[in-house]
Amino acid sequence: MMNNIILLPMLLPILVGVVLIFLRAYGRIQAWFSIGVMAVSSGIAFYLLEQVQANGILRLDFGGWEPPFGILFVADSFSLLLVLTTTIVATIILLYALFSAGRFLQTTYFYPTILFLIAGVNGSFLTGDLFNLFVCFEVMLLSSYVLLTLGGNKRQLREAIKYVVINIVSSWFFLVALAYLYGAVGTLNMAHVSVRVAEAGQGPLLTTVSIIFLIVFSLKAGLLLYFWLPGSYSAPPAVTSALFGALLTKVGIYALFRVFSLIFYHQPEITHTIIGAMAAITLVGGSLGAIAFNDIRKIAAYNVVIAVGFILVGLAVSTPNAIEGAIYYLIHDMVIKALLFLLVGTIIALTGTAMLNKMSGLMKNYPMLGWSFFITMLSLAGVPPLSGFIGKVLVSEGAVESGAYGLLTLALLSSLFVLYSLLRIFKNSFWGETIVSKEDQVPLKKMLLVPCLMLVLLTVGLGLGTELISGYVTDAAETLLNPDIYIDAVMGGGES
Amino acid sequence: METLIILLVGVLTAVAIYLVLSKSLIRVILGTAIFSHAVHLLILSMGGLKKGTVPLLGEEAESYVDALPQALILTAIVISFAVTAFILVLAFRAYQELGTDDLEEMRGVNDE
Asked: Is the ipTM of this complex over 0.90?
């Protein structure tokens, strides 16, 4: 099924972004344009998702070159669910930016860069070609470099250097992996690679190549190789770190799921065991980090790490239940991490400090903010009926089915650490004696709460309305577990 | 020919790793540039190296070079060019703000 609309979630942000560069001086107009284009993109993503349910996987061959000769976009339920969540979350984050960003940010190409970032993210989700995946990664990364350094205070510049160098090295690994893969199988179209790997058998050489891919995507996802993450996610302004926390690591996770379920699924006792071990160490490291710091930005950043570990437990186990749970959790995590970072940013803006021991009793000052944070905390810990619950249950069920009790224990313990780390924030900053009187408190702009409340509604809605998306998630998991569906849709020639 | 080029890739990578691990920021950047050259050569040799042919399929071509790696390298070169330009500016700005190009001093205190 050919469809030109598949391109729009990547093309629209780029086109509008280019136009916005010329509207540099008009911050408000830029913001509304960006919000509009994101809302339209999410509508398109939803339309495509419905199309996929009705007609099967969609694809678009650029220039009419049939696979495996050309580059193509492939839209299956998994990609589209993530594109849909990305665009919705980005719309809400942009709304927050509209109300919070200062004049400086508004007029220094902030919005165009965000749109390019989203374009890279959507492109990574939709592409069906490994080299194109590299290009989309780079689009996303270059935008993230710019976003990280916008503002240019000392801390940002310092963290940006580490972030950029780490990502250059990981991009280098990506190219090395692509070179070896091309040398071994002679193609870079994902479906075609999968066919060739299945034909030739996944020998030691291909398994080694798969491990290079594992290193690359782990660096991007923050799986085990997360040492760069807390610093760079806690340096930029709230809007930027919300975007990073919600979207960037998820692209790495998506790539891991795609590559290890579509291409390198023949040797799970090697690759998936390694992924499991990495996930376990990530869970432990993230949990320790989350309770070790006094800086609430750092705590939030380590919560990102824990979630990455948790989602990858689903891939390591790879039973139908676990994959489904991981997809639910991935969607949930995009929403809730955006919310967490926005709330943390708001708290910092209101108190003027990021240190836990310098804030107290905010509940009296800003009750709505406090309760939003409370719901976020419960949702992150996986308390029903919020959105984190279903994912945790299904991943745990998968782990039990395949007897991975070690991973199960760590995954569940990590939830306790998440709860504890956020309770610490809640207890220190919202409870306790109110140290700032009603008269002296920094006024909270009502409009800033609107995007946060929208995300709160989204997490509650996802939890209560799991039934509504379960059809899509089941279909996504089925495609991931049966590579043939994907391969048939791509390689099936013009008639499908 | 391929063996020779692969050895060259190895040497370049070793040089790049040495540079990236040094303390001076500008050396690190040079290291990343050499990294990208190394991997471009690697991709090129993966397509197979032949003498005196072009990546064009003529009517009576007897041998031709695989064109895809060349297209990949072209894309990769453009990207690495952009990234190198960005990080050079970043290094300059960081030097202005932080007053040092020593990575050891850029660690920063955690709870500032």
From this structure: yes
